[in-house]
Each structure stands twice: as C-alpha cells, then as structure tokens.
TrEMBL record:
GO terms for biological process: L-tryptophan catabolic process to acetyl-CoA; L-tryptophan catabolic process to kynurenine. The gene is kynA. Heme-dependent dioxygenase that catalyzes the oxidative cleavage of the L-tryptophan (L-Trp) pyrrole ring and converts L-tryptophan to N-formyl-L-kynurenine. Catalyzes the oxidative cleavage of the indole moiety. The keyword Transmembrane does not apply. Pathway: Amino-acid degradation; L-tryptophan degradation via kynurenine pathway; L-kynurenine from L-tryptophan: step 1/2. It catalyses: L-tryptophan + O2 = N-formyl-L-kynurenine. This is Tryptophan 2,3-dioxygenase. Belongs to the tryptophan 2,3-dioxygenase family.
Length: 366
C-alpha cells in the first residue's frame, strides 16, 4: 500500500487558508474610499455560498438514492440524515442574519453604490437549490416580467435547464410515494375505511356542536358550516376526479396516488415501518418552512437596511423578497395533509395481516 495515502498535511494547507483569506476584496478600497463594514458584507455572502454548496452536495446525493426504481429501505435512513443536515444548515443561515444586522443602514450606505448591479438574485447556487428541490419556473416570481434565468450566462442557463429536466426531488419523492405498497394489501381498502372514519368523526363533531349548551343558534350554524362534511376539504382525497381538477387549476401539485400514500404514512406513522417515511416527509416540510423563514428574515433585513429603495439588482427590494417567501413554497401539498388527518381514536383498525406487515422490515421486493 502506498505511503502517499497516509502522508501528513498541515491544517493551514489542508483548508487552503491563504487562498480563502485572500478573496475578501472590497470594491470600496479598490476605488480609493475604503468602507470598514464591506468586509463583513462580503464574508457573510461568501459563507452563504459555501453553505449553498454543501446543501447541493446533500441534495444531489439524496436525488441519486431516490432515482433507484426500487428505493432500498436501507438507504432511507441515510436520506433522512442528509435532509436533517440541510434543515440544520438552513436554520443556521437564518440565525446568521443577526450578524448581518449589526451592519447599520448608514454603514451600508458607505459602500452600497459600489455594488451595482450585483444582487443576491444572481446567486446561481441558490437557484440550483430551488430547482433541485422542485421549484418550477411557472411557479416563480418573474424578474421584471422575464425568466429568472435572464441574469445568467448561456452556460449557467443550460445547467439550470438540465436540473429542471432531470427530475427534481419533489418529482422523485412523488414517484417514491406512488410506489408505496401499503395501499394495496389484500383485504384492506384504505380509502373506504378512511371515508367511514371521516364520516364518523364529522358526525360526532356535528352532534357536539348541535348539542352544545354554550352556543346560540347563530354560532352553531357558523361552526357547522366551518366544520363542513366529507365533501369539503376531504373531497380531493375521496374523489380522484376532484383531485385532478384541483391539479389542473393549480390548487395542488402532488399526484392523487402520492397524496393518498402521504396521508396513510401520516395517519399510521407510529407503525415501525412507516416511522422513517413519516420523518422523511416531515423533514421536507421543515426545509420548505425554514427556506420560507430565511426569505422572510432576508426581506425584513433589507427593509431595515434600505427601506423601500430599489435593490442593487433592480428588483423592488423588500416587496419582491417578501413576495417570494409566500410564493416560492415547494412542498405545500405535504403541509396540507394536516387538514386531512383524523384523531388516532378514529383510525380504522388494520387487518391482522396488514398490522403484521407494518411491524417489521418490508422491502416491497418480490
């Protein structure tokens, strides 16, 4: 075995510290009017780009594992751990905004004019993260009415288009859910059992409202209307046609089969074999929520720094960033599963064979 494999290296050289510390080049100093706080501004954004690189490293590895036609359950814990790492990184990104906020508006004005037309909007890595997760171009805020890709060169555009056509994590998870075997156990019709349980639950709640001694008739009528029935927000899982109508109108995105699978996983998450799938779906929601939080905090920071001024990249600044926080959500369908949940006490009893199969390792392989 070659000794080269175990050759020693100094910390300084391993991390290429000299190179790393040589790239905080302030434009204010280069143009003869050095601003003290520009170094902080540069370091903060370079740190974000390093975190973006790590997020893409994790996302790429997760996508590779999901692209297997038959996802190996041995890999699911690895997927979960890597998604948790992404959540932890984004959570740290949110916290790092506090450091940026030590830069006061007047301090920022000392060098802001030197930034034009550079903008965080031009971060290629962040756009790659969004596209890899599953943010589609048609769901994005436009940039002055044009594609978000307009700020990138032809090579970068081709790379983004390759990500969009290669199958996002959203699409890979959707296909994984559609292959869930637990919906088709012999002797167990999940949807029929679920509908019966929903009707029982709603009947009990309707009876409780109608029989209340503390509500007047107007309040009873209002609460009964709010409660609805199995034809209200439960309808799109009880009717495939309704779900497909909602998909066609952009009200939901996840396929009918994948939605049913996600619902079953959420309802029976305490079963050993469904625990990791449940935590995996939860982690995808965590990432979505944390990215939304990061966007909101970024928007608030921009408002604090420049008020209602136009951003350096030409966007509307705060208003644009705040709007992306609301619009650029990817896994909304998983969040909406909560509206379809019923109490554990109302869950349909599982046949003995189904209960047994959900209690130990089930590969789904023949």
């Amino acid at each position: 075995m070659s000794d080269q494999k175990y050759s020693t290296i100094h910390y300084h050289n391993y991390l290429e510290i000299d190179k790393l510390l040589s790239i905080q080049n302030t434009r204010s100093a280069a143009l003869g009017d050095a601003a003290h706080d520009e170094t902080l501004f540069i370091i903060m954004h370079q740190v974000y780009e390093l975190w973006f690189k790590q997020i893409m490293t994790e996302l790429d590895s997760v996508c590779i594992l999901f692209r297997e036609e038959q996802v190996n359950e041995d890999n699911m814990n690895t997927v979960l751990l890597r998604l948790k790492r992404i959540s932890t990184i984004v959570s740290l990104m949110v916290e790092q905004i506090h450091v940026m906020e030590t830069l006061t508006p007047l301090d920022f004005l000392d060098f802001r004019d030197y930034l034009f037309p550079a903008s965080g909007f031009q971060s290629m890595q962040f756009r790659m993260i969004e596209s890899t997760l599953g943010l589609r171009e048609e769901d994005r805020m436009t940039y002055h009415g044009k594609s978000y890709k307009i700020v990138f060169n032809e090579e970068q555009k081709a790379r983004l288009e390759g990500i969009e056509s290669g199958g996002s994590l959203f699409e890979l998870v959707e296909r994984w859910l559609e292959r869930t075997p637990f919906l088709r156990f012999e002797g167990f019709d999940f949807l029929s059992s679920y509908k019966e349980a929903v009707d029982r639950m709603l009947h009990k709640e309707q009876a409780s409202i109608s029989g209340s001694e503390y509500l007047d008739e107007r309040m009873k009528a209002m609460r009964l209307k709010m409660l609805g029935d199995s034809n209200s927000y439960f309808k799109h899982v009880l009717s495939k046609e309704e779900h497909e109508r909602m998909m066609a109108e952009g009200e939901c995105r996840l396929s009918y089969e994948a939605t049913i699978a996600a619902l079953l996983i959420n309802l029976y998450r305490d079963k050993p074999i469904l625990n990791i799938p449940f935590n995996l779906l939860t982690e995808l929601m965590n990432i979505d929520e944390l990215l939304t939080t990061w966007r909101y905090r970024h928007a608030q920071m921009v408002m604090r720094m420049i008020g209602n001024k136009i951003g350096t990249g030409g966007s509307s600044g705060h208003d644009y960033l705040a709007a992306t926080a609301e619009k650029h959500k990817i896994f909304k369908d998983l969040h909406n599963i909560s509206s379809l949940l019923i109490p554990r006490s109302e869950l349909p009893d599982l046949p003995e064979g189904v209960e047994r199969n959900l209690g130990f390792y089930f590969s789904g392989k023949k």
